Amino acid sequence: MSVSPSFTHGAPTSFLRRYVFSTDHKVIGLQYIALAIVAVFVGMALSLLMRIHLVYPAAVLPWLGLIKPETYLALMTMHGTIMVFFVLTTAPQSGFGNYVLPLQIGAPDMAFPRLNMASFWTTFVAFVVLLAAFFVTGGAPGVGWTAYPPLSAILGAAPGNGLGMDLWILSIALFCAGSLMGAINFITTVLDMRARGMTMMRLPLTVWGWFTTAVIALLAFGVLLAAGILLLCDRRLGTSFFVPGGLVISGEPSTHSGGSPILWQHLFWFFGHPEVYIAILPIMGIASQIISTFSRKPIFGYKAMVSAMLAIGFLGFIVWGHHMFMSGMSPYSAFVFSLLTMVIGVPSAIKTFNWLGTMWGGKLRLEPPMLYAIGFISFFVSGGVTGPILAQPATDTHLHDTAFVVGHFHIIMGVATIFGMFAATHFWFPKMFGRQMNVTLARIHFWLTFIGAYCIFMPMHWLGMAGEPRRYSQLTELEYLKPLMGVQQFVTAAAVVTIAAQFIFLVNLLWSLWRGKKETNPNPWECTTLEWTTLNPPPHDNFGGVVPVVHHGPYEFSVPGAARDFVMQTEPASTSAASN
Amino acid sequence: MGLALLLALLLLAGLSVYWFTANGWWLPAAASSSAHAVDAQFFRSYLLMGIIFVAAQVALGLVVWHFARRRSGPAQHSHGHNGLEIAWTLLTAVLFIGMQAAGHPIWASERFDLPANGELDAAHAAAIPVEATGVQFAWFFRYPGPDAKFGATDPKQIDASLGGESALGLDTSDPASKDDVVTGEMYLPVDRDVDLNLRAQDVIHSFFVPNMRFKQDAVPGLRIRARLHPTVIGTYEIACAELCGLGHYKMHAKLHVVSQAEFDEWLAAKEAAK
Lengths: 580, 274
What we know:
The complex is a heterodimer.
Chain A: H1 15-20, H2 25-55, E1 60-61, E2 65-66, H3 69-105, H4 113-132, H5 163-192, H6 205-236, E3 248-249, E4 252-253, H7 261-295, H8 302-315, H9 331-359, H10 368-385, H11 387-390, H12 393-399, H13 403-433, H14 439-465, H15 485-515
Antiparallel strand pairs in A: 1-2, 3-4
Chain B: H1 2-25, H2 33-69, H3 82-108, H4 122-126, E1 128-135, E2 138-143, H5 164-168, E3 181-183, E4 186-189, E5 194-200, E6 205-209, E7 214-218, E8 224-228, E9 234-240, E10 252-258, H6 260-273
Parallel strand pairs in B: 1-5, 4-10
Antiparallel strand pairs in B: 1-2, 2-3, 5-8, 6-7, 6-9, 9-10
Helix pairs in contact in B: 1-2, 2-3
């Protein structure tokens, strides 16, 4: 498990090898984060247009003109795809994971630095290919990020179903390839590259989050890749994996026969449900790290936290059917999927209890990373409690494919996860750049986003209860939706304010990069893990030729008899009472 | 800052409870037998999850407020408590699984059990067969006529421009299709079981009647059967709840629930007009 110095590679000197085609996990991590920031602003812009269109369907927007139904569907599909893949999958795992994981386990780099570079650039190309769909004939696809066939399989069935849809599939396939490479790298690194003394049960929970996520990604992305290739074959090579016979589309008889649209749903959700955990497990790790540090207390129930992550990772693979209750599933299958989904709520609840248990009896420091982590818990609870309502076929029958689902998954998968990313950014910024972010701007941004996000997504639950279907480009056709327009306007107003508030974060980030208060203390938060033993920013080989040796578990805070209220993982056992 | 967080979380809990329960839980008026059972399950689920939601948000606020105020003394050094872990694991498991078990029969009752021998049970046999077919971007409804049998359809005979029978491509060579009635609005008698047959001609659609708390996908290549039991006379909207393309937002139809006599009269008139 010890790392020989010969393993490290020398620091590159050319600009290209240093900042562009870099094999340094820190540069690659930052590249992933930068990609996610670009993607999140694109995705937000798309959602802003959608929200404006929903309340002013006849508005002629400057530069874009009238938003037609096909434009709306394209905005919706691209918003979902960009956010799920290029933000929620990219930043928590590939971004922060790449930067921090090798540092936290005392490794000089990832196990396969060139593979790491390849996975980033594959992901980058995937993003460019996806955006290209906006500019081809027929425009971007309008079939939703779930791309259900036959709608997505038959060229004439939907707008944007020509080259745009092919580019979408190609982008997803590239993204899968990039993620698979990343997953192999993360797993190997955690298993083989840990410093001496860094046993699995001394890993920070962040590392457990990234490790579990990598295993999930390895098993899930391969399935999506295969499904995408089959869909492309159906579209362009005349196969019929997902399209049955006897269909007539826009008066044209289809030549397909013998396929099943339900097969796609099984394959897609076998990936799609674990994908939720790919986004949030790293954030659970990050939240645990930050809550423990800023409560000055060991994490409550470390083993329970690790077990809960592994349980979520495992159960995440056997609950996909709850996305398909309305697909014609028999009550027997629905019962099993519903029951398993209820069971997955248990480890999620355990994590919440343990975060509260960690804070209980602590000495809380409400610095920006902690504020965002507290925000994360609040959103995790709010998005979590609607899960068991959707997980029951009886109640899901009414709520399935309504705005309720949109509210549910935006809160838990979108907002909670993004709050975790805000927390992570503020937490590791001094390590990454040797400067601190501005606290006042952080507080303003926290409050506007915390209140704003609730104002956007809570009302969506009520709209769903009232029966508002999702993915409607206009809400003016159904009589029973007309009285709900006031709620729609409120949601749009909240979205405008909340999206505007994100520029405060962007300004803080960019301003702090060059003008933030210099931070030379390698451990400004008085944290215990290995990344805080090295310089800000860490040298190319991470620890400047020193190989860290680990003597403690990751969260030894407020140890009785210790000189300070934290014991670094590298401190020799003799200097403190803790010898865990 | 701790106090501000506490107040914000209290406000969040209070306002959420108020707004979720406002307007009769936002639910449209219930108009089917299962709607009442579903609403009862909604109430049970909301009660349980609502208590968990409020308790967790308030606890988070109190813990943050209280332990951020502390100035003196070190934090506790504790790695956890196994008894507590076991207690809250079991508690959540029992509550969640119990709630699930309570709700399951409701949904199952909307699906007829199709026996292995192919014979319909009595309730199913007495139900009124109606077929709903989703076509981009309209619903078509078919009643089997006096022979109680849906005739065959033939994709080659589909001509949407002619509407009615031709839109579904009724096979003119099949005698069973001769007496089939095809309409653009759905009529159902009140207080009768309906044997709803769902089909789709092109892509996946979803038959959604908010007042009935009923939704079921119509999947190309499948005939999906479900049980519907309207209990209140009135006119309701049927929406499409699965993205089906450009006109998804305007794919809707009317469902008229009428008395048995009115229904018989309407159907007879439709038969006669053929």
